[in-house]
Each structure stands twice: as C-alpha cells, then as structure tokens.
Amino acid sequence: MPTKPLDEEAIFNAARRIEAPEDRAKFIAQACGDDTGVAERVRALLDMHERDSGFLKPPNQTADYEPIAERPGARVGPYRLMEQIGEGGFGLVFVAEQQEPVKRKVALKVIKPGMDTKQVIARFSAERQALAMMDHPNIARVLDAGATDSGRPYFVMELVRGIPITDYCDQNQLSPRDRLELFIAVCQAVQHAHQKGIIHRDIKPSNVLVTSHDGKPVVKVIDFGVAKAIHQQLTERTVYTQFAQMIGTPLYMSPEQAEMSGLDIDTRSDIYSLGVLLYELLTGTTPFD
Amino acid sequence: MPDVTQVLAAIDAGDNLAADRLLPLVYDELRKLAAAKMASEQPGQTLSATALVHEAYLHLVGEQQFENRAHFFAAAAEAMRRILIDRARQRKSLKRGGDRQRLNLDNLEVAAEQTPDDFLALDEALAKLEIKDQRKAQLVKLRFFAGMTNEQAAQALGISTSTADNDWAYARAWLRLEIEGPRAN
Prior knowledge:
The complex is a heterodimer. Helices cover 37% and strands 19% of the residues of chain A. Chain A contains 9 helices and 10 strands. In chain A, helix 1 (8-15) crosses helix 3 (36-51), helix 2 runs antiparallel to helix 3 (36-51) and helix 6 (176-195) runs antiparallel to helix 9. Chain A is elongated and about 85 Å long. The N and C termini of chain A lie far apart (66 Å). By secondary structure, chain B is mainly alpha-helical. Helices cover 68% and strands 1% of the residues of chain B. In chain B, helix 2 crosses helix 3, helix 2 (22-40) crosses helix 4 (69-97) and helix 4 (69-97) crosses helix 6 (134-144). Chains A and B meet through helix 1, helix 3 and strand 10 of A and strand 1, helix 3, helix 4, helix 5 and helix 6 of B.
C-alpha cells in the first residue's frame, strides 16, 4: 500500500501516455491498488481525454501576437510585395509581382494571426484541383497558396481592381434593371463554380467586385476556395471549441452556417447568401439587421 | 488613470500589485474595440476573440517591449471570459423574454455559438476548478480565452511546457467530466 494519498492527476498523466489498452489497464490497476474510486475517476478522465480532443482547444495553435510583418518590398515565396490594397477581417491584401514562371501582377492575401497555417494550406490543397478547373470570366482565379517565412498562410489570386458591387451600384446610381443584370452575372459565376463542385461559403459584397473593362462593368467573384480553407471552423463540429472564436455579424451567412448545427453545408448556402445580396442590391439594406 | 504601458512598466520594475490594475483597462479596451469593430467592419465580417485580444495588445502596448507582457494576456483572458459570460447570460434572458431587439452589449454577436447554457456550464465548472487548482484554471483561461499557445501560457505562468501540457490535458478532461458526468458503460 502506498503511504501517500493516491493522486488521480499523476496516474492520469502517466496512463494517458500508455498507448496499448491492456498495458494501460494494467498500469491503472497497479497504481490505484485497492482504491476502486480513484481507478474509476482515472478511467472516466481518460475517457474524456480520448473522446474529443477538440474540447476547449482553440483552433489557432500557431497564433502569436506579432503583427503581420510583411510589408511592401518584402518577398513572399516567388512574389515581391508592392502596394497594400486592402485590409480585411482576415488579413492584408497586397499587389504583388510574380517573377517566375511568368512575370505578372497578382493579388496576394496574407492571413492574420489566429489561423492554423498547416490546416489552412492542407484544406486549400485538397481543393486545388477543383479550383484549377474553374474558368469563368466572372470568377477571379486563385493561383497559389503557401506559407510566408513567418509562418502565415497566404493566397495568390488574379488581381482584380474593383469595388464591392453594392458600392458600385450606389456610386453609379444604377437602375434596378442594371443592378439585376450585374447580379445575373454573379449568379452565373456561382453556378459555374457549383457545377465544378466548389462552394464559395462567404459570398458578400466585399467578395463580389465590379471592375471596368472597356467602359463596361464586369463582375468578379473573388476568394473562391479561400473561404473554405480559412472558414472551416464554421462547419467542423467541435464541441465547445467555438465559443470564443467567432464573434461577428453573420448577415450573409445561411442559417445552417451560422448555427453550426453540424449539418454539412452545400450549394444552397451560397444561394442563401446570393439572396441576401440581391435583397441588398434592391433595397439598400440586408434583410436581417 | 494609468495606461497599460505604465502598468506593465511598473510590473517589470517589480511592483506586483500593479497587475490588478490591468484588468479594468484591458476589459474596457476589449469592449470598446469590439463595439467599434462591429460598427465599422463590413457586414458579414467575423471577428475572433483571439484576434480581438491581439488587436487590443497592439493598440494598448504597441511595439514596446515588456518583460511581463504575459500579465496583459492574463488580464485579457479574464476580461474576455467576463464579456462572453455577460453575453451568454443576456442571450439567455432574451430568449426567455422573447425580446427581438438588438442586443445592447456592444452589438457583439456570436456567429457560431453553442447554447448559452453550455457556456455557463463551462464557466461554472471552471470556477470549481479554480477553487481546486488555480494554476490549471488560469491555464485554461489563457489558452481558451486569450488564444495563447501552450508555450506562451507556460511562460506566462512560469511553469515548464511539459507541466503546462500535463495541466492542460488533466484540466480539460476534468472540466468535461464535471460538465457531462461519467459516461455510462
């Protein structure tokens, strides 16, 4: 009999490192001796420990508190950053110059701290083939993704110099008919993606840009594939993990996305967001405040 | 009112009581920041608590280096916990009252949220853990509410990373068992 009181914590921490179930059971029996109460506690704790590693675990294990260090002039992979053209909730957007294999200007988005770089890139890679199949004049191509020297994920996209569709319509005081025409192009772009098996997941005005080609407005839906790679936490059913993680106004998000009910989202989520966008284009406000 | 950099400087200089003065400052800043964000960000934008804490740090402390900056994150974790608890309570009472008005709690809304009940249950369990083992409860707050990594939290608590790792595994299992009870076999 051990002289000091049995310490469930010490036994738990030793036992959780033993892989083989029989060895582990033997160890617990030995360590707890006659004290079946402690043995039971340890088994229950191990059960919890094994069951769901997502409990309480913030998804951003690589988060740190340094600001994004990438600045114009810096090199990110084969790209040289030029000017910063945007700052969103998820990071900074730069114009970047690619040297190899072709020389061109692209948009490069560096994701802010708080995302697990490996996971983001893995999710992007999983969809890369499908993304490459998309070819539509109203979809900005996603070209590349990787990690910066400081370990942040980045995405490279076709450079679109445009403004959000809602702003464009208001600034140019477009009639409802013209607004609908632009909106139809958005629908066609999304339809194209859906036929290739790609769901956008984050359709909102700032991802639907309007640029001018030869004086005619052209819609470009940006960030295909990006939302999936960095938004995954919305659909991953990790109990409790998300409390502290998502704070925002999910105005364009479909109910199944917002509720994180565990139902996998499908193309209908995009349709829902399109509906909200249409509502906003025609009434100037979103349906839910 | 002293600012955060002054308090951190005082802690660096050895004034242990100074740490208590951080919480109200950080709490205020986080609430303000969240409110400002919600008002100015593009609709549809989501904000994470971790990013919020990060921004508060940049805003209040900036580029200055402090040996004891971990104290800031301890205060931020506690502040974030209070903000989220307040909101869970509020959401719960709103649900009962059937009030459809916009929440006045700085217009914070949670996109992907569990029920407020779950969250309050977690907080209750965390309070019990705090009585039993303050260090482990602190570790959970740092990691869960301030989004710190194991290494950062270990450094903040002045313990080794392997100790922090053990504490974390045990605290998580303990909390979950406390909330859900043992599984029937």
